[in-house]
Write a structure and sequence with these properties.
21 helices, globular
Amino acid sequence: MSATDAVKGDLDSPVLTSAVKKAARHLMPMLIILYFVAFLDRTNVGYAEEALQTDRGVSAGAFALGAGIFFIGYAIFEIPSNLLLRKFGARWWLARIAITWGIVAAAFAFTTGDTMFIILRFLLGVMEAGLFPGVIMFLSEWFPNKVRVQMFALFYLAQPFSQMLGNPLSGALISFGDAYTPFHGWQVMFFIEGMLAVVAGIAAVFFLIDTPQDAKWLDKDEKRALLRVMDAEDEVRATDGPSGILRAMGNWKVWYFTVIYFCLQVAVYGTTFYLPQQVKRIISPDAEFWQVGLISAIPWFVGLFVCYFVGKNANTVRRRRTWGTMFYTLTGLATIGAAFAGENGQPVLAIAFLVVSVSSFLACGPITWSYPTAFLTGTAAAAGIGLINSLGNLGGFVAPIMRTAIDERYATDTGLYGTISVGVFAFLAAVMFILTKAMRSRSDALLAADEKSAAVPGH
């Protein structure tokens, strides 16, 4: 029996189903919490922009550079961090990441000016490097390909949770700090949200398990079933993909998905960093922090359900490719639509477009990651996934600088042209994603094929 046939036979096993459910129940909550606080600490600077300019003299240019330079530190240390995770295990390494980035995030409360702000943003990227790709690699070693997008989607739910709950939380902490403490509200926000990461890191030591073999909550049959399928999938991935660090970093498929992921991150951070300001411009320049926070949470609330639905049902080659292309296209259309609606004084329509934009780019992430994790394994996975995420995340560095520069060159009340530039990258990703139809591999046969694609893997 081939490895592919072995996987197909085991995927329907009640024992394997039980093992997967137990793994999801025990591991996913902790991983979601880690990414929740990580995303919160990445993006809460959007709420402090005006206060930092007023209280500490942080210029608009320094803010844009600081918002983006996070991803430079992130990119430089991403691959080394992923390789160290393989050496020390996900449990300890992910905990280390969370604790150290939490300390740096809390230090933003003591920002004194442009230089310190930029340095802290760089250090935040250095300390958080490896979290996201480490979790992606960790999940690819725990969950079979057929259910992997569902697990990625559950992990991605941390983003809408972070923004849905984090936006009101950040606004409330600023208001509380200004009203009831001797400190500025933005200082209270940075310190408390940074400490959340430290607590999460300590908790990760107790809740994460490195391998199925070490999981006391799996019985012997469940361990055997899960390990059998994952070993068989590793055999398939080893024949489909590169072996070793250097070959993974030179593999054309790895670079192809790096470009796609870069485009996605431009769309994500080009929207996320400026979402509070964009919402405030749309509804009223005089809107309170808590009002902006509540309205900014609406796109993430809807995205929560879209991301979950897509993850649960994107279990065939055709669905992943078709849905990925569709959601990238919707991201571009809705991002540009929100810009035009805001510019033409239509706040309800603008918010509706933002809902579609955020929901769409949230759905893109889990689907996109299903491709490289289907052909990368071992140290090749550590290097390849690290490369895709590190260079792809440079989109988060490019997006705020590009958007700010365009808005300054072609100034409008709502930042029309800067927002349009973000949407263009989503269209590029859509074109590249539909072309993945030409990528055929044995890994495709591990998915549940629909009636039209079962005969020819990759179609």
